[in-house]
Amino acid sequence: MNLREGRVGNGECVFTLVISLCMSGLFVFESIDAYTHGNSTYISLPIACILAFSVFAVGIFAMTRSRSSDLCAMCSYALGKTGAAVVCVFIIVIILACISTLLNKFLNVMYSYFFQDASYYSLAAFFLAVLVVFSCMGFETVNRAAKVLGVVFLATHILLLVNSFSSYETYKIYPIAGDGMKSMLRFAFESGILFLPGFVSALITAKGMHGTHNTSRIAVKALIFTVIICTVTQLLLALSYPYDDIAKLYMPLYRMSMVTGEENFLVRLDKISAFIWVAAALLACSYYIYSASLLYCRSFRQVDIRPASCSLSVIVIMLCLLSHSEKRGAFSWLNFVGDYGTLLLAVPIIAVSVIAIIKSCIQRSSLGEVGHANI
Amino acid sequence: MQIFKRIKKPVCFLLILVNTLSLCSCLGAVSLEKYGYVLTIGLDTGKRYKYSISFLMENEVEESEQKTASKINIITAEGDNIYDAIYIAESGLPYRLNFSRTNYIVISYEIAANDEIMELFSTSWAMLKLRTSANMIVANATASEFIEGLNYSSSVNATKLESNLIDFYENEGLSSMMSITSFMSAIESSRYDAVLPLGGTDTSVDSPPEKDSDTTEGSERKGGMISYTLGAALFSDSVLCGVLSGRENQILLLIQGKLKGSVIQFTRADGTKYSVRIGNAELPRIKVDLSGDKIRLHYSLLVSAVLEQDNSSKVVEKMRKEGKLTEDMDMQIREFLHSACKTVFEQCRDVGCDAAGVGKSVCKEFKTVKEWEEFDFRSRLSDVECDFDIRIELADIYVSTYPE
Amino acid sequence: MNKFFRKIAFYFRFDNSATNNFELLETEFGEPSKSADEDSGKQYNPKDDTADTLFYEADKNIDRIKTAFRTDISKDLVVRDFMLCGRIHATLAFINGMADNEIVNNYILRDGMNGEIPEGTEDLCKYAVEHIFTVNDMSIACDYDTVRKALPDGKTIIFIDGDPHCCIADTRKFPQRSVEAAENEKGVLGPREAFIENIRTNISLIRRHVHTDDLVCEMRPMGEETSTAVGILYRDKVASESLVNEVKRKLATIKTGSVLSTGIINQMAEPKPFSPIPQTLLTEKPDRCASYLLDGHVVILCDGSPLAAILPVTLFSLMSTPEDSYSRQVTGTVLRIIRYIGALISIILPGIFIAIVMYHHGFLSSEMLSTLITSRKMVFIPIGIELLLLLFVFQLVREAGMRVPGTVGQAIGIIGGLVLGQAVVSANLASSVVLILVALTGLGTFCIPDYSTQISSVYLRIIFMIAGWMGGFLGLGCAWLIFTAYICTLKSFGVPFLTPYAPKSKSKRMNVLRGPINNKTHKEDYMQ
Asked: Are C470 and B157 an interchain contact pair (Cβ–Cβ within 8 Å)?
């Protein structure tokens, strides 16, 4: 088998997961949806993250109970091979939709802010090269690169937030409650899809993370860091722009350091940050592509992950490019995923988990103390 | 076959690389010498077309020619929008115009007052890749005259000159500086209004003035640049609605809590004079009362006053020894500032400009967006009442500058 | 046609199993790789050469040797018949100029002639070695191959009539360099001595630093024609057994005619010879070797080469110098940070410059833009080509300076740097800003301590430059990501290249920031 799982440590996995979750959590949602009726994302996003984690927790509990090494094994245990294959394909499609949304965002940023004379295809080719290399090189490479580059990402992010200090004013955050608790919770629920791919990928790569127990520890640490980063960033964004201003910005974080209007030697930090975010997004997408490929390989008994990684990378790029072409109407299902993605991804996982738990309980009670190893 | 095995991966890698290279191509690379970098944009009403747009660029000369050649190049073109003007201008230039280093956007009074700024800005400024920290200025006359007046032979280069101007004005408080990002933010957010620096041209620098507007706020000046920036242009939303003088602008900055330092001279009852440097010691504390029909504000300002020059007499020395000097100065400064703040605030309010940022404080009183939007603060701006509570922190008053 | 498609399929096939990658155990929850080569890390058993045996008659043996060494043409071989203990015919042979005449005369010939041997002694060679010859290093060989290889080594062979064995005495004495200061790894605070071409001397230099009894030196002859002595040094029970076995296995797979230097062994034994990053560290300092040996690394020495190969290595090993350990902690840290910045500048600065100049002009201040435009006013070459040209000229000057001896070599550097640079700017072939950039890049290159990595940085920066030219910061960022992925995947004899940062290990060896010297244990956990 050449599934390129390698051997990785806890720190590396935490970095990968945090980068993936933060990139999705901070950049994917549309400003107009999030901010038109007030800015309470610094409350909604942590709730969304916790919601996604709870889905993960159910999944990991079921995996532990059924002694499955990863998500595919649990699906096979619960539904049999055919059922598992169907569910896995469905999960892969949703994950691909999420990846293409994230990548599309940065494709637009690169085109609009930096390379207006280029075409989307040229820009996408650069993305494709990185995605193919990372996803083919495997889990170990993605995680180690995340650890190496994670420090750079974090340092730049903190520098950006600190540099914009002079633009933080408390009046911009008012009204604090946004449009009320109801809309806050609704947005939190809809935003669950931002964090679910990361946690689902953790379930898929649980074997590479050295078991379910270790994976859950990693996920908890990643949750804490993600919640802190997302909350602080959104809070500081709220202090930088009033809600009606920020709703019109495509990528408010990019414009954050420009609000100060002061010219200092860090004034170019916004552009540097943009490229660093692109690198982080590519890393996150590579991780998702790798986990989707791994799920596919395990479901369909493929011995080498590279054909699946290459194919899925190309599919993701194709989805991004097609949304900029005349055929964009055909991809309205991506918007559907954006609106109902939380349900689409959470329901199958919870359902499979519940079935697996029930099955394992029945088996345990019928077999006595002898457990059924399903690795 | 063994050799093929060893070089298999590099060959594959090269193949992929070559294919990817052919896919990606260059992303529209343009070398920097193919651009002319616009330092200032001037927006005026055109004669034949809607707008006349001026572009100020640095004149790149060799070291040997630097002393004699002009520092700046000004190109003017007309068009119905900025893109048309750019095309016309570029047609006569050996390079493309690049706005990534633009320091200033100068808008003529006429355009600002006729609500044409948003029409110009509504075209996608992002496509111009305009530097978002570019500052905006409203020119009392025409923008092109203001830009021409920026030519100053003693300066090293135009960029340094323009960046020095920003530092200077911020420190003295005679103008407010606002970048294009902040200006757009002011219009979008509706919690405060933009206040832009007011520019003018003073032809008395070179020749005797013919009218008052040819001077610097009524004062003749010799030497220096023809263009100057003094005072503020008040905006209500995106429309120019009034102006403030340099001194009034300092008071406005005091109300906003942004005054770093400004020297004011006072005359005592006995005719002696003293000068104090005033500035904000802390941000103003504002209390909002929405209980009645009108919005009532209570401004609490803590102002630091440092004695700079005191042309005092022996009478004042006596007052100092008796400890009565503090009361006297405190009362005088407080009365002056109270009256000045109230005048400037009402002046801004009456023209419909929320220069003091009243909306920032009012919006804090609402819990939800719905309530805030239903309140419709902009329509109630003209009914705002404000009273000021000014406290003075005197310093260095016991330093005697009286020559023995 | 079938053959052609099979070739294409061979290039693009997806393997059923992973490539043969030797992997050491890792500290975190790891198991040995199931996909590694079957032979990886297994016990190495050298081939048992059963070569042909020797004759009982000394004359026949010596005639055979004479024929092999072409004594009719070459007069290097000295053959001396003598009577062992006055009654048994014996012949000795050695190569003129390689054997110590004093030892041959006094301790073989004199002692051999004057000795006594009892009648009926069967193992004549064994008796002679134990009782007659007083040379300290003697061995007995029974196969012709060993005898044949001993002569060019400087040893003396002695055949005795009636015994199909041969006595081999170590009488080596040939001209060699004395131990001098290191030329390529200069230091201020640490020891100055460097290796020389004699492997024995080199081993003794290492043993002077490592006084442990577990330091093992296994010698292997390598090269079909040169039979060069190659020494594998490691600390028994400290160095990983599978690592040592893997090294021996790799060396055993080297089938080449001549091995003249450690560099050749390096190229043939490295897991990825085409990688821009070296997977072994070549050094000429014994103290550096000793330091790594104490940590459990393996050192390879080659007779005739003043360089030792240390393996496995990590990125941090390649970027560190012994000077860091000998300096104080803060000094060492600052020097290291400067070195890393220099290395980064050398690799990435040209790419950043091209990206900014071609795509992201807003990064430069207006004054800088103005200076650049003014300096390039009359330059007709596009800026990318100009940069490439100057980088190439810099390399030319560097190569010329290395080849030209003595003071003239230094003058080349001055001429190249000052005069040529000035002339190029005056002739409008290049701009002064780009010249400064190239000089900075060159200085950054020299900050990299390891010579192989220095040379790699030359073409790495070209790759980044092309990436920046093609795609600005996006291209540069993507190239950097791919490079990071590559070095994250890279392993040096089973140890990931970015250890102990990724993967994390409890290494006390100093990485970027220099840690304290005290409480340092010598066993690195990632080496186990």
From this structure: no
Q: What is the pLDDT of residues C420-459, one digit of tens each?
A: 888 888 888 888 899 999 999 999 998 998 888 999 999 8
In a domain, C502, yes or no: no
- Residue B90 CB burial class (10 angstroms; 0-12, 13-18, ≥19): middle
Q: What is the mean pLDDT of chain A?
A: 88
Query: Which residues of B touch chain A, with CB atoms under 8 Å apart?
Result: 16, 20, 23-28, 30, 126-127, 129, 132-133, 135, 163, 166, 177-179, 181-182, 185, 188-191, 357, 360-361, 363-364, 366-372
CA distance B7 to B13: 10
**Residue C269 sits in the same domain as residue C351:** no
Q: Look at residue C395 and tell me if it is in a domain.
A: yes
**Closest residue in chain A to residue B20, using alpha carbons only:** A125
How confident is the model at residue C18, as a pLDDT? Answer: 47
Q: Is residue A20's pLDDT more than 50?
A: yes
Q: Under an 8 A CB cutoff, do B27 and A244 touch? A: no
Q: Where are the beta strands (DSSP E) in chain A?
A: none
Q: Which of C370, C376, C318, C354 is nearest to C438 (CA)?
A: C354
Q: What is the mean pLDDT of chain B?
A: 80
What are the tens digits of pLDDT across the range C454-505? 999 998 999 999 999 989 999 999 999 999 999 998 888 888 888 878 777 6
Q: Is the pLDDT of residue A5 over 50?
A: yes
Quick one: C363 and C482 in the same domain?
yes
Nearest to A171 among B163, B179, B363 (CB): B363
Domain that holds residue C342: 325-496
Fold for the domain defined by A10-360: Amino acid/polyamine transporter I (1.20.1740)
Q: Do both C454 and C365 map to the same domain? A: yes
Q: Among B26, B133, B286, B376, pick the best mutation site for testing chain A contact (most A Cβ within 10 A).
A: B133
Note whether B191 contacts A125, CB cutoff 8 Å.
Answer: no
Tokens of B204: 């008395």
Domain count, chain C: 3
Which of these three, C313, C334, C351, is where a domain ends? C313
Interface predicted TM-score of the whole assembly (ipTM), two decimals:
0.91
Domain-embedded: residue C528? no
**Is residue A245 within 8 Å of A39, Cβ to Cβ?**
no
Angle, helices B2-24/C2-12, rounded to nearest 10 degrees: 70
Q: Quickly list H helices, C193-328.
A: 199-207, 241-252, 262-269, 286-294, 315-318, 322-326
Q: Testing the interface with B: which of C255, C272, C373, C464 to mutate, by most B Cβ within 10 A?
A: C373
| C362, C477, C501: residue with CB nearest A275 | C477
Same domain (yes/no): C289, C185: yes
In terms of domains, do C131 and C257 share one? no
Check residue B65 and give its pLDDT: 55
C259 and C158 fall within a common domain: no
Residue C307 has pLDDT above 60, yes or no: yes
Beta carbons of C194 and C185 less than 8 angstroms apart: yes
Look at residue C45 in the predicted model and tell me its pLDDT. Answer: 58
- Picking from C144, C169, C194, the residue at the C-terminal end of a domain is C169
Q: Do C477 and A278 lie within an 8 Å CB cutoff?
A: yes
User: b or e along B159-177 (b: 16 or more beta carbons within 10 Å of the residue's beta carbon)?
Assistant: bebbeebbeebbebbbbbb
Going along chain B from its start, the domains and CATH numbers come out as 33-244 (no CATH), 251-404 (3.30.300.210)
Percent of chain C beyond pLDDT 70?
85
Q: Are residues C293 and C357 in the same domain?
A: no
Are C356 and C454 within one domain?
Answer: yes
C-alpha separations of C435 from C345, C396, C439 in Å: 15, 15, 6
Q: Which of A132, A147, A136, A133 is nearest to A13 (CA)?
A: A147
* Cross-strand bridge partners of residue C270: none
Percent of chain C, pLDDT > 90? 23
Q: Is the overall model pTM greater than 0.95, yes or no?
A: no
